Amino acid sequence: MRENTVISRRTLLAGTAATALTAAAGTAANARPATTTRPAWAAPFATADGFAGTDLLGQNGTTGGVGGPVVTVRDTEAFLDYCDRNEPYVIQVDGIMRFSSKRALRSNKTVIGLPGAEINGGGLDVYRRQNVIIRNLRFTGADDDAISIQQSSHHIWIDHCDLGNGADGLVDIVRGADLVTVSWCHFHDHSKTALLGHSDSNAGPDTGRLRTTFHHNYFDGTAQRHPRVRFGEPIHVYNNYFRDNALYGVASTENAGVLVEHNHFQNVAHPIYSGYDESGPGRVVERDNVYVGSGAPQTLGTVVEPRTYYAYTPDNASSVPSLVTAGAGVGRI
């Protein structure tokens, strides 16, 4: 089944039979008419950059569900069913998916939101998986993490999402996860934004892993963890806009190695920490950042250059506020 198939409830999730049944489903009282075209703006075939784009750990970059069927889901049961399947899928989300707790998202998936798409109340759990793309989705009110990447998962790309108002982390990358890119996302109305390395006692699984790129994200009034890092190296934080972050911007702890470059910090009293709370100091290099109404950054030691893994061309830090506010978040790909 290679065509774009609209699924309205679990009873229609029967492989090739789904195509034939879609027309009948469209006549149901609680279903909207089936569609057979995919909006051009939602094409899922863009390629990840940063660490998610690297050819490491036996994976040729991050392509998500490319090559699998394209399905459009309009209710929560169908959405969670496709997320939990083992086969590759491009899952287009049409509407608001309401559920609680973190739910499994398996390997070789692209989850991409159509206009107005939202995950409300719960989150996605990428657990021992690889090759996953999450794009153009709003996450709000998660009762745990909004997106959790853990247990040696790798090649994960989070792009153009809107995340806020959660109970715990918005994007947490822990327990040996690796090769992740978080790009062009809008984080707001939240405290603990992004954690890399879940505890000071997890040095073994996390050291030399957790390699993550954060670029062109808007940390909009969020309080802390943009990100907070333990053990991982290199963590690459570039071309992000930090605005009114009450506690701090970036924290490198427990001998992590973080490069912070070409970012714009506005009204951030503590833009960069080495060490935080009970966690020991981490190595951190800063260069070519802009600090407006902000304090002085802390730095320590040297960090492995991300250029040893991938090529990139940073934008000038002075242009970051206009670029990021115009381009980050949903509806902008």
TrEMBL record:
A single GO cellular-component term on record: extracellular region
Lineage top rank: taxon: Bacteria
Stretches of the chain forming a coiled coil according to its record: none
Entry keyword set: Carbohydrate metabolism, Lyase, Polysaccharide degradation, Secreted, Signal
Keyword Secreted tagged: yes
SUPFAM superfamilies: Pectin lyase-like
Short name of one Pfam family: Pectate_lyase_4
GO terms of biological process kind: polysaccharide catabolic process
Keyword set includes Signal: yes
Signal peptide: 1-31
Cellular localisation: Secreted
Domain Pectate lyase: 66-271
GO molecular function: pectate lyase activity
InterPro entries in alphabetical order: PbH1 (IPR006626), Pec_lyase (IPR002022), Pectin_lyas_fold (IPR012334), Pectin_lyase_fold/virulence (IPR011050), PEL (IPR045032), TAT_signal (IPR006311)
Family recorded in the similarity comment: Belongs to the polysaccharide lyase 1 family.
Name this polypeptide is given: Pectate lyase
The organism's taxonomic lineage, starting at the top: Bacteria, Bacillati, Actinomycetota, Actinomycetes, Pseudonocardiales
